[in-house]
Each structure stands twice: as structure tokens, then as C-alpha cells.
């Protein structure tokens, strides 16, 4: 099996990631390029490592995270399923074992809040890592007059951190929000479904999910 580090250098995969991000940029979405997928990969690695999963499972979740948004090059709608099919073809052609492919594509196919579920530990870690990547630097157009609600919410987040406590029974997403750009209600208007999926993902990993905003516990 190729490693996560080796896959990062694969030109075809890098082309799909760049193309997916370009498509979303044309539609006015926030950044979904290498900054996003590598941050998600690092966070997913942290989750499974902290919980004591094997180095092989950690490697698989990083690969799933790196590939998870390539389906956006097809269409934003059902991009998780499109991405899973694309990832299957890529990984099969690269000689990955069927069991590893199955874990990766099931995680990719289940990462979106519209239909996704934490069907295994890799999927659960990917969900938590993906949905916690809320930050100002993901906003492409910093003209406040043209912000939509997604821009306002992301731009308002000056600091974001996902952490697991010492007893490993709680995972907390801590956000520092500038209320000049967005309110708590704005956040929940667009992120409620994502937070509910995070709650399910945390439960699948034997934890409770907590959300803090400006030091105040919201969930």
C-alpha cells in the first residue's frame, strides 16, 4: 500500500483536488483545496492516534481525508458518493487491498451531513475532522459587502481547535468568534446538521461531543 505521504505527491490526485476546489470557487463556496484536506487529515490522525487506534487505521483515515472532497469536481450535489467512486478507482488502480479500499470509500461516502453516518471509526474521525474546519482563512472573497452567511460564519471564526480530554470520553470543538461578522444563531443556521453528525460520530468513537463558543458551552 502506498503511504499517505506518497499519495500526496500523486499528480492525478492533486489534479482532482485542485479541480474540485476550482469548481467550488466558481460556485462561491469556501476553500476546499490542499489547505482544507491536509488540515482534516492532520485532525483525523490526531483523533484516532489519541484514542489508541492502530498505525494502519491512522494511515487509512489520512488517505480518506486527503481524498474526501474530490467528488466536487463532478458536482457539489452528492459529492460524497461521487468522491467515493472516484477514490475506489484510484486506489484500486494503485493496488490497494480490498479491505482498505472499503474502509476509505465508506468514510468518504459518509462524510457529508445530508446522508452520512459514522459507519466505522475511520468515517467517524473523518466527520469530526471535516466539520471542525471552520476558520477565517477559508473565505475566498474578503469583501464584507458581498459575504453570504457561509462567508460571515467562517470569517467570524478567529480560532478553532478540536481536542479530546485526558479520560478520552469527550471531544470538544472550541471556537473563538468575532460577533461583528456573525452571530451564534448564524452559526447554528448553517451548521446544525453538521454538529448533529459530529455528535453521532463522537458516540461511535465512545465519546460525547461538546461545542464551545467564546468559552461558553453551547452543546
Structure description:
This protein has nine helices and four strands. The chain is globular. It starts with a helix and ends with a strand. Helix 3 crosses helix 7 and helix 5 runs antiparallel to helix 6 (98-109). It has 219 residues and is an alpha+beta fold. Helix 9 (184-204) links the parallel strand 2 and strand 3 (208-213). Helix content is 54%, strand content 11%. A four-stranded mixed β-sheet has the order 1-2-3-4. It has helices spanning 4-7, 11-27, 34-50, 55-67, 79-93, 98-109, 121-131, 149-156, 184-204; strands at residues 157-164, 170-177, 208-213, 216-217. The model has no long low-confidence stretch (mean pLDDT 95).
Give the structure's gist in a few sentences.
The chain is 54% helix and 11% strand. With 219 residues, it is of the alpha+beta class. A hairpin with a 5-residue loop joins strand 1 and strand 2.
Which consecutive residue ranges, at least 5 long each, have pLDDT under 50?
none
The average pLDDT score comes to 95
Placed side by side, the strands forming the largest sheet appear as 1-2-3-4
Number of strands: 4
State the separation between the terminal residues, measured CA to CA.
Answer: 40 Å
SS-derived structural category: alpha+beta
Largest sheet: 4 strands, mixed
Please report the number of helical segments: 9
- The helix/strand series, from N terminus to C terminus, equals HHHHHHHHEEHEE
